[in-house]
Amino acid sequence: MAGTQEQSPSPDTGPALLRSTLLSPGYLKLLLLCALIGVPVALACFFFLTAEHELQHLVWEKLPEGLGFDRAPWWWPVPTLLLAGLILAPVITRMRGHGGHVPVHGLGGGAPIGPAELPSVVLAALAALPLGVVLGPEAPLMAIGGGLALLAVRAMKQQAEQGPAAAKAPMLLATAGSTAAISSIFGGPIVAAVLVVEGAGIGGAQLVMLLLPCLIASATGALVFTGFGDWTGLSIGALSLPKVPPDMTPDAGDFLWVVPIAVVIGVAVTYLRGLGFLAERWIARNTAQRIVLCALGAGVLLMLYAVITGRSPEEAALSGQSALGALAADPHNWSVLALIALFVFKGLAWSLCLGSLRGGPIFPAILLGAAVGIACSGLPGLGTTPALCLGMAAGSAVVTGLPLSSAVLTVLLVGQDAHNQMPIIVVAAVVALVAAQLVPQRHRLPEGS
After folding, report:
1. Who contacts 412 (Cβ-Cβ below 8 Å, separation ≥6)?
2. What is the C-alpha separation between 275 and 296, in angstroms, rounded?
3. Model confidence at 170: pLDDT above 90
4. Which of 50, 93, 356, 439 sits most deeply, having the most CB atoms within 10 A of its CB?
5. In 233-342, which residue ranges form alpha helices assigned H by DSSP?
6. Comparison of pLDDT for 276 and 212, the residue scoring more
7. 3-state SS string over 115-167?
8. Alpha helices in 154-203 (DSSP H)
9. Has residue 244 got a pLDDT over 50?
10. What angle do CA 397, 340, 433 make, to 5 degrees?
11. Cβ distance 151 to 115 under 8 Å?
12. Rounded to two decimals, what is the model's pTM?
């Protein structure tokens, strides 16, 4: 191309360096160790998730039934969240590791959790998440995977002559362990690998600036290429799509609604996350007492959701995984008022938990986006499935800052209907991420502000 000069790769860079690294004994040992690490990490994550699920079932179903209620009563979140705050306060302020990273900073909010800090993370997660904290298990899972992987570092010989692979072994092992752990909750290794690649920050802002145009161009191109025949009645012989129900296939009306709805979700979720940064700053003084107050405040918000809607407070509490499944399975069972109340009260409770408690930020954001999407599904020309997909992708993209990972995660969540929804999903993720930048800096309050 004009204006460019070809440069011969140095023998110490490019393919030669890649080949020498991949075939070095140290790197091959590292790969073998990572493969072995996946087994104990998977077992640990299995037992962690099983324990968390059973405790959640005990708190929100068995205990209310034992007290004579058909479901958790409207006031149930207040004592459970208060108890969560009382448990988390000494863990965060006194135990080594402080229960893990502050979730408002995302999944990569600091250095990997070491083995010595791991007990506080597990205790904080198992003691508080089942009680209704509006956060997910993904961050504790990643900490468990990374911490267990770092234990394996002690078995490796770290010598300078083993090359760059050995020098970077601790970080590589921690990342591998976290990836193995996160795959257990995100449905497989693909989305976990994409999260690592995109979240590694290789290329920094330049990578993001390159990725967004590629995503948006490929999404719009795919939409036109696969849908133009349906809109015009024309067909391309080389194109063959599987048969899907007519109401599941997005059309021009669905696509036109993606941008404004994704903008709304992007701006709204960004403001909610900004409140999380405010909560983090507020608890810097009198930390233990204010952690309890934040947890209690979250409980009151969840109670208000139940009072206003007449629905179970469990829908607004916890990570939102169960509520998301119920919403996707029967979206017409939710009124627009209930969906708006879910976004407002769960969103505000999520903000308090983001800045003061411990857990993962992603799944609540996905549910918040899905609630907005389904609430808008009654708009002319917007189908329920595209509305659900764009909401999930937009909510995830804002809180992670990773549009490709958010798109892949949404595709996996949607399942068999994802093929036709992919253009909608990708556009929603990109637009929401761009729209988040419209929020003034003082309301986003990023780390270091």
Report:
1. 186, 187, 188, 190, 191, 418
2. 16
3. no
4. 356
5. 252-282, 287-309, 321-329, 336-341
6. 276
7. HHHHHHHHHHHHHHHHHCCCCECHHHHHHHHHHHHHHHHCCCCCCHHHCHHHH
8. 164-167, 169-182, 189-199
9. no
10. 15
11. yes
12. 0.83
Exposure on the CB side of residue 166, measured as CA atoms within 13 A: 14
What integer best gives the mean pLDDT of the chain? Answer: 80
d(CA 220, CA 389): 16
Evaluate if residue 216 carries a pLDDT over 60.
no
Distances 287 to 85, 97, 355, 446 between C-alpha atoms, Å: 11, 15, 11, 20
Distances from the Cα of 295 to the Cα of 88, 346, 374, angstroms? 9, 13, 28
Residue 37: what pLDDT? 76
What token pair was written down for 189? 């290794």
pLDDT tens-place string over residues 326-357:
888 888 899 999 999 999 999 999 999 999 99
d(CA 71, CA 198): 41
What φ, ψ does residue 108 adopt, rounded to 5°? -105, 50
Helices (H) and strands (E) in the chain, counts: 20, 0
Q: Give the separation between CA 128 and CA 134, rounded to whole angstroms.
A: 10
CA distance 296 to 132: 11
- Is 424 buried (19+), middle (13-18) or exposed (0-12) by CB count in 10 A? buried
Spatial CB neighbours of 143, under 8 Å, sequence gap ≥ 6: 100, 101, 112, 113, 117, 118, 121, 178
More confident residue, 378 or 196: 378
Q: Which range in 170-174, 371-375, 416-420, 444-448 is most confidently predicted, on average pLDDT? A: 371-375
Contact call for residues 402 and 195 (beta carbons, < 8 A): yes
Is residue 229 within 8 A of residue 365, CB to CB? The reply is: no
- Residue pair 58/72 in contact (Cβ under 8 Å)? The answer is no
Q: Is 25 left (phi over 0), alpha (psi -120 to 50) or beta?
A: alpha
* CA atoms within 13 A of residue 87's CA, in its CB half-sphere: 22
Q: Considering only CA atoms, which of 284, 229, 222 is closest in space to residue 420?
A: 222
CA 306/CA 4 separation, integer angstroms: 63
Dihedrals φ, ψ of 355, to 5°? Answer: -90, -10
Phi, psi of 265, deg, nearest 5? -65, -45
C-beta of residue 424 within 8 angstroms of C-beta of residue 386: yes
- For residue 156, what pLDDT band results from cuts at 50, 70 and 90? low
Measured from the Cβ of residue 421, the count of other Cβ atoms closer than 10 Å reads 25
Note whether 429 and 410 are within 8 A (CB).
Answer: yes
